[in-house]
Specification:
By secondary structure, this protein is α/β, with parallel strands linked by helices. It is built from nine helices and nine strands. Helix 6 (124-139) crosses helix 7 (151-163) and helix 8 (193-214) runs antiparallel to helix 9. It binds adenosine monophosphate.
Length: 285
């Protein structure tokens, strides 16, 4: 596995591969790998000739009071794991080269980023779309894969790629969970053992919501009440949002009458955790 730090070296290498007719697949990450990251890499390992991952904790997607400084990092371990998975290139740019002095250009998806995480983290999606666009211009991938755990992020990137006519195929990957249901996240390391138990409320509440729908419940308000109850706000647990939305338009839903996004963001201690599922009405056959 090659480690490339320089932007121009990465661009030249990708250009060479493209001229040779090689298909490049990219997995963008912020590092501190868990099985979620690794399964994204494995999922696309055989979908191209060259597998590139990027490891970059992107400062522009963090708010001023957020966890950029203490976001977990372990580059040596990440590189070892990536090598084991069979990654060809780890692109690890320096912040000073990605955002040199005088940097002032951002790309923004305006509508579907207004709600959910976009509401509580005002500059988050603008930071994400900007860094993903930069990574696409540097790595020049034919395809890139993102996790459905960050459902709104995936939708936003799809929208950007479509709106800007970018010639990159965007792939989604289902959320990878611990055995007890907790969605894997680099931020899970912030949780104490007691907080981790409380964090199980997120995945449990998603399952309960689907059970309610299976039993015929269609009222969003009833489902949201049950989810809030299961999350058990108080003490270490503070709900940021619990919402039911159309998974394509992100408009709020008051009645379930088709696939509906149930999205949660919950602070458990210092960790802001997100999770989601698509609620489905059981078929009658
Ligand atoms: P991050 O390093 O947290 O920015 O994540 C890098 C990529 O991995 C993003 O596309 C995430 O959506 C994806 N990802 C993170 N956690 C999971 C998970 N538990 N399951 C599936 N994909 C994930």
């Amino acid at each position: 596995m090659r480690i490339i730090e320089s932007i121009s070296e990465m661009q030249q290498q990708s250009e060479t591969w493209r001229r040779e007719g090689k298909r490049i697949v990219l997995v963008p990450t912020m590092g501190f790998f868990h099985e979620g990251h690794l399964s994204l890499m494995r999922a696309v390992r055989n979908q191209g000739d060259i597998l590139v991952i990027s490891i970059f904790v992107n400062p522009t997607q963090f708010g001023p009071s957020e966890d950029f400084e203490r976001y977990p990092r372990d580059l040596e371990r990440d590189l070892r794991l990536a090598r084991e998975v069979g990654v060809d290139v780890a692109f690890v740019p320096a912040t000073s080269e990605m955002y040199p002095e005088g940097y002032q250009t951002f790309v923004e998806v305006t509508e579907i980023t207004r709600s959910l995480c976009g509401k509580s983290r005002p500059n988050f999606f603008r930071g994400v779309t900007t860094v993903v666009l930069k990574l696409f211009l540097i790595v020049k991938p034919h395809a890139a894969i993102f996790g459905e755990k960050d459902f709104q992020q995936l939708a936003t990137i799809r929208r950007m790629v479509q709106d800007l006519n970018m010639d990159v195929e965007i792939l989604g990957h289902p959320t990878v969970r611990e055995g007890d249901g907790l969605a894997m996240s680099s931020r899970n390391t912030y949780l104490s053992p007691e907080q981790r138990l409380k964090a199980l409320g997120l995945s449990r509440s998603l399952q309960e919501a689907q059970t309610l729908v299976d039993r015929g419940e269609r009222h969003a308000a009833m489902i949201l009440d049950r989810v809030r109850e299961t999350l058990g706000e108080g003490g270490d647990v503070r709900i940021d949002y619990v919402e039911l939305r159309n998974p394509l338009t992100f408009e709020e839903v008051s009645e379930i009458n088709g696939p509906t996004l149930l999205a949660l963001a919950v602070f458990v201690g210092a960790a802001r955790l997100i999770d989601n599922c698509i609620l489905r009405i059981p078929s009658h056959d």
